[in-house]
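Render Sigma-70 family RNA polymerase sigma factor in 3D.
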Amino acid sequence: MPLDEDVVASIYRDHGAALRRFVLSASHDPQLAEDVVQETVLRVWQHTPEITGSLRSYLYRTARNIMIDNYRRARRRPAETLESGLAEPAAAVPEKVDELLNRVLVEEALLRLSKEHRDVLVALHYRRFTVNEAAVQLNIPSGTVKSRAYYAVRALRTILDEMGVER
C-alpha cells in the first residue's frame, strides 16, 4: 500500500506531541520515544480503515504495545538491556506503561465531560473531598454534588466505551 503522506502528516500534527509525551513519560529516552512514535503512526496508518472509536486511544494502545515489545526484545539480549537503561524487573515495565496509558485515557475522557461533571469527579475522586467538602468547594448544594457525580460517572463510562477502553 503506498504511503499517503497527507494522512501520516495529519496523524503527526493532531496527535504526535501528546503521543511523544506519553512515550517519554514511560521511557525517559527522547530517541526511543521518537522511534516509538514513528512506528506507532506507521502501524496506525496501515490499519486506519479498521479503527473504530477514538484514534488517539488506538494510538496510545499501539504505542503501549510497541514499548512492551521493545522491552521484551531487549530482555532477550542482555547486553542491549544494560545499555538501554531498561534494567527494571520484567513485569514492571508493562505495568508502568499500562498505568500511564490508563491515566492518559481517563484524562482525555474527563476533558470530554461537561465542566460541571468534571469538577465534581475531580473533587470527589482526585482530591478525595467528601460530598459536603465538595459542595462547599464548588459552591453548590450537597444533593447537587451527589446528582452530578452519578450522571458524571455514567457519562464517563459512555465516553470510555466509545474510546474502546476496557474496564
